[in-house]
Amino acid sequence: MAAEDVSADNLLNMILDEVDDMIVINDSNRNVIWINRAAQCGLGISVEEAVGSKCYKLFGATCYCDRCTANHTMGGPSRCGSKFICRDRSGEYECEPVSRYEGGKLKIVVQHIRYRQK
Known about the structure:
Blueprint: H1 8-17, E1 22-27, E2 32-35, H2 37-43, H3 47-50, H4 69-72, E3 78-79, E4 84-87, E5 91-102, E6 105-117
Antiparallel strand pairs: 1-2, 1-6, 3-5, 4-5, 5-6
């Protein structure tokens, strides 16, 4: 494959797929638009099953996280400054969301998620 055949999106997907932590990307309505391989393995779900579902449902929640940066931040790309921890029977998911705004409106949220077994 020649360098000119590699788009920025393809390159980014290749890199994020190699990250050991889970990466989940949502649209402004909290619909999953992409997950990396670590998220597929960690959550036991395929890309096809994840895409279109609500991000919080991947973790067994019934509604979105009230501390999510998407709820509170306006402006440019930002981190919320606090970590959300969702506990399940086998461990904890620690989420550090980063929101991306365009024209003052939320475009996407990139969730960087670490899992720790109990």
